[in-house]
Amino acid sequence: MSAYEIDAGRSAAPSTSGSEAGRSLSGSDLEAGRAAAVRRIVSDLHAELVRNRLVAWTAGNVSGRIPGADLFVIKPSGVSYDELTPETMVVCDLDGNLVEGEHRPSSDTAAHAYVYRAMPEVGGVVHTHSTYASAWAARGEAIPCVLTAMADEFGGEIPVGPFALIGDDSIGQGIVATLSGHRSPAVLMRSHGVFTIGADPRAAVKAAVMCEDVARTVHVARQLGEPLPIAPDDVDRLYDRYQNVYGQRSPR
């Protein structure tokens, strides 16, 4: 599969309510099954944003690309996290147009869509206004790589992207321009918040969790004095080990 593995055969049948109050997919059963699977994954991952205290009220969103289709699933606009279900998730095309669902898509849909168009390797995008990372964004300051956890996950500093207004793909353009040639899966959009990318939605959520964690730790370290940077060669070694050795590997 193009972005991540989806077991469409075990997915619940897609909701047909979209054809009554919104729009519904008109493609193959396989495409509909994959869409249903991604809707379930994306819905479940929104609970991780709440559990890790990355969001307040209805702010923030997770999206996931539907493998094998020019479509993605995203949170609906302004809907409470308590009310989110696989059925409330909406499906959009890569221009940000609603394809399936009863609700209007997130106000950040254009940004997500631009990332998916420009970065075909990306399978998931997350946006939060998490407290510490957003504080760095408000300062317009990159988070320096002073922790091994940062070297592991981000491969260096967490960069700052330009200020951009919400509503069109200006934010998406800033995300792509900032992360192009960067190992970091996270960017601090100036005066706004955090956007993260990943090979799948879960990886993007992990990056958002880790971004807030290191933003807080580096802030605390600065209260004690100036944090010590990690040498670039050591950052490279730490990143390579974590990305290629750490954790479990599926048997071939």
From TrEMBL:
GO terms for biological process: pentose catabolic process. Its EC number is 5.1.3.4. It catalyses: L-ribulose 5-phosphate = D-xylulose 5-phosphate. Residues 40-219 form the Class II aldolase/adducin N-terminal domain. One of its GO terms (molecular function) is metal ion binding. Residues 1-29 are annotated as: Disordered. Keywords: Metal-binding, Zinc. It comes from the Bacteria. Coiled coil: none annotated. Its cofactor is Zn(2+). Pfam families: Aldolase_II (PF00596). This is L-ribulose-5-phosphate 4-epimerase. It comes from Nonomuraea cavernae.
